[in-house]
Amino acid sequence: MKFFISQLEVSLSILIFNCQSRISQILKDFLFAKIFFLNSQFIPIKSRINLEDKYNFEDLKIYFENELKKNSSKAEMTHTYRIEMDTIHPAASHIINKNQKLIESYLGKNFLIEPAMYWRNFNIDKKYESYDIISNVWHQDSHDGNRMLKIFLLVNDTSEQDGPLLYLTRKDTIKNWPLLRERWSFNKEKGITNLKCEKLVGEKGNFLIVDTSRHMHRASIPNKWRDLYQVSLYPNWRKAKGRTTYSAS
Q: How many CB atoms are located within 10 Å of the residue 53 CB?
């Protein structure tokens, strides 16, 4: 019964709100946003931080490579590998602090942060591009409501051949909604590659802040592999388990 209600909620959200979250969670976010006078939308932020000196990722890269070697069979099987960190990298803290007013205008004060992740996606055969293997199918992050932010940070120079993160504006998300709305369907077009979209490419240090619960996004397929550092932020009325209140450092 719970599963049926959950699926019904998602179906209603897909039809009414152009979102893949449960409708009860969308309404919860809407209510709290009104109570705290929060902005109704968050315009994605694309900018850059210089990853030198105290903001460099060299130690983390070495640690990641060592962990990857220990788990190489798992990475080969899934075509992706990630590690979680309890402490946030100084570069990510700087990004949050610099954009804190905009973040708080959307999530509210005392927002929550999850353990950061360092991701690596590996190449997969093009014939599998419509199968969700490395998050390479268009989707929204629908696991916890309809108001969250993710920070994606390039730790290496990244070109289109490196399989960058792709995302749609909210306008284009709605425009293409009938085609992309069902992540888990067998629709071969769900991995469609010729949509007009934004790409997180360029020099290391380029970053994106975006609400992935509202903007369709996906990984593209790298020729070899692509690394990405990720931080997730949530309003403080969301579940606190595994998350902490962000404190500027």
A: 7
Query: Residue 23 domain-assigned?
Result: no
Strand partners, 232: 150
Encoded tokens for 175 = 């425009």
User: CA–CA separation, 182 vs 216, rounded Å?
Assistant: 11
Residues 6 or more apart whose Cβ sits within 8 Å of residue 206 = 46, 47, 48, 153, 154, 158, 200
Model pLDDT for residues 133-190, shown as the tens digit of each residue:
999 989 999 889 999 999 999 999 999 999 999 999 999 999 998 888 776 554 555 5
Give the number of other CB atoms < 10 A from CB of residue 73.
Answer: 8
* pLDDT per residue as tens digits for the range 44-55: 999 999 999 999
pTM of the model: 0.92
Cα–Cα distance measured from residue 141 to residue 232, given in angstroms and rounded to the nearest whole number = 11
Domain count, the chain: 1
Range of the domain at 151: 42-245
- CATH code, domain carrying 104: 2.60.120.10
* 3-class DSSP assignment, residue 234: strand
Kindly state whether residue 99 falls inside one of the protein's structural domains.
yes
- pLDDT tens-digit profile of 86-137? 899 999 999 999 999 999 999 999 999 999 999 999 999 988 888 889 999 8
- Give me the sign of the Cα torsion angle 176, 181, 184, 187: negative
Give DSSP secondary structure letters for 44-110: -EEEE----GGG--HHHHHHHHHHHHHTHHHHHHHSEEEEEESSPPHHHHHHHHHTHHHHHHHH-SS
- Phi, psi (5° rounding) for residue 231? -130, 135
Q: Is position 15 within any domain?
A: no
